[in-house]
């Protein structure tokens, strides 16, 4: 096996558009279009879609070996003093924070080197890799392989550090161009190229996956970046890495693109189904809680959709009720109606789970 660093060809690449690839391009675009059509018709999208963005952050970081679950994330947000799975939880929260930062920045500038470096800086804040040149391209040679292996046993050796700047300039030019035949092919190729350049010492996978929904958002193919792409990559992790390597080794670009387009199609369809389930749940409960005769009930419902595990402390901060007793009374009513379930028998620092939403988020459809 060649153990020299691999320097990828500059973009654009020569794609052979087989009948199957053309068919998949059409199907993926159709599914993505249906997803965006659904998003544009939701009256309060950020409220209902925030949980999906959190679930995507969990999936993307899990590919890198984190063990945090979506419950861990919401438990931490309900009580920031919790230390269970703390480091993994912070990696997920950093991913989500980086996504929100990028969405704001994309209103002012396109995907570019500075934006990507700042995303990297956020992703590695106070977690594994924080001492690995946060926000800066690597200046040393790296290799990809099993932990403890030497470079002789590397599965892949990215380009030398001195090649990164030129390769990234080409990457930046390509991702902001309109020269590719289809935007989904463009981001599929861009994802391969980013992972191959491997510009950072750590965090390349998370940033490479994050760039997919950001690109679709910037290209106005998605009004909100809720494409659950990392779930598919996680479920097909071995194939995902094998196909990326096969482009490098054997120039099997079309096989990678077929896999990538299938991911877009399948995850768009899944996102549609999950969004519909979340939307139906919200509307059903909105009608139900009118019977509770509380001026705070709708606000609490909204809080539950943004934070499906809550605590008294979180509610006091967000509900802005006149008294603590008002909050306790409202919690009691929601528990009686089985809208919330107490997650422990602790006398203090109790947490309450919105299991109906958590079930939708955790279940693969």
Features:
365 residues; mainly alpha; single chain; 15 helices
Summarize the structure.
This protein has about 375 residues and is mainly α.
Break the fold down into its secondary structure elements and pairings.
Layout: H1 19-40, H2 45-63, H3 70-78, H4 86-105, H5 113-123, H6 164-175, H7 183-197, H8 204-218, H9 229-235, H10 237-250, H11 253-288, H12 297-306, E1 309-311, H13 312-319, H14 324-336, E2 341-342, E3 351-353, H15 355-362
Antiparallel strand pairs: 1-3, 2-3
Distance between the termini: 41 Å
Shape: globular
Elements, N to C (H/E): HHHHHHHHHHHHEHHEEH
Helix content: 55-70%
The helix tally amounts to 15
Structural class: mainly alpha
Radius of gyration: 22 Å
Low-confidence stretches: none
Structure, described:
The protein is mainly α and 365 residues long. It is built from 15 helices and three strands. It has a three-stranded antiparallel β-sheet. A hairpin with an 8-residue loop joins strand 2 (341-342) and strand 3 (351-353). Helix 2 (45-63) crosses helix 4.
């Amino acid at each position: 096996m060649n153990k020299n660093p691999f320097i990828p060809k500059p973009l654009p690449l020569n794609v052979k558009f087989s009948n199957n690839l053309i068919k998949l391009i059409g199907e993926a675009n159709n599914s993505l279009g249906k997803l965006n059509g659904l998003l544009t018709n939701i009256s309060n999208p950020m409220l209902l879609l925030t949980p999906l963005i959190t679930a995507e952050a969990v999936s993307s970081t899990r590919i890198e070996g984190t063990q945090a679950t979506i419950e861990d994330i919401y438990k931490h947000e309900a009580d920031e003093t919790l230390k269970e799975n703390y480091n993994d939880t912070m990696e997920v929260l950093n991913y989500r924070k980086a996504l929100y930062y990028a969405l704001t920045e994309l209103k002012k500038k396109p995907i570019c080197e500075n934006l990507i470096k700042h995303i990297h800086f956020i992703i590695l804040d106070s977690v594994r890799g924080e001492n690995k040149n946060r926000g800066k391209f690597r200046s040393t040679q790296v290799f990809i392989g099993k932990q403890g292996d030497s470079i002789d046993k590397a599965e892949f050796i990215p380009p030398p550090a001195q090649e990164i700047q030129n390769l990234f300039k080409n990457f930046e030019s390509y991702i902001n161009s309109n020269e590719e035949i289809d935007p989904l092919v463009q981001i599929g190729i861009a994802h391969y190229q980013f992972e191959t350049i491997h510009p950072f010492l750590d965090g390349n996978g998370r940033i490479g996956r994050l760039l997919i929904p950001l690109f679709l958002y910037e290209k106005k193919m998605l009004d909100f970046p809720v494409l659950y792409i990392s779930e598919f990559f996680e479920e097909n992790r071995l194939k995902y890495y094998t196909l990326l390597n096969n482009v490098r080794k054997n120039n099997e670009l079309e096989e990678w693109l077929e896999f990538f387009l299938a991911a877009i199609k399948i995850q768009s369809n899944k996102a549609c189904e999950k969004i519909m389930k979340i939307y139906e749940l919200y509307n059903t409960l909105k009608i139900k809680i009118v019977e509770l005769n509380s001026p705070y009930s709708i606000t609490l419902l909204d809080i539950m959709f943004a934070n499906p595990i809550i605590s008294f402390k979180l509610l006091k901060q967000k509900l802005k009720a006149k008294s603590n007793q008002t909050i306790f009374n409202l919690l009691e009513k929601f528990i009686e109606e089985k809208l919330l379930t107490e997650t422990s028998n602790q006398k203090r620092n109790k947490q309450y789970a919105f299991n109906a939403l958590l079930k939708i988020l955790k279940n693969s459809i």
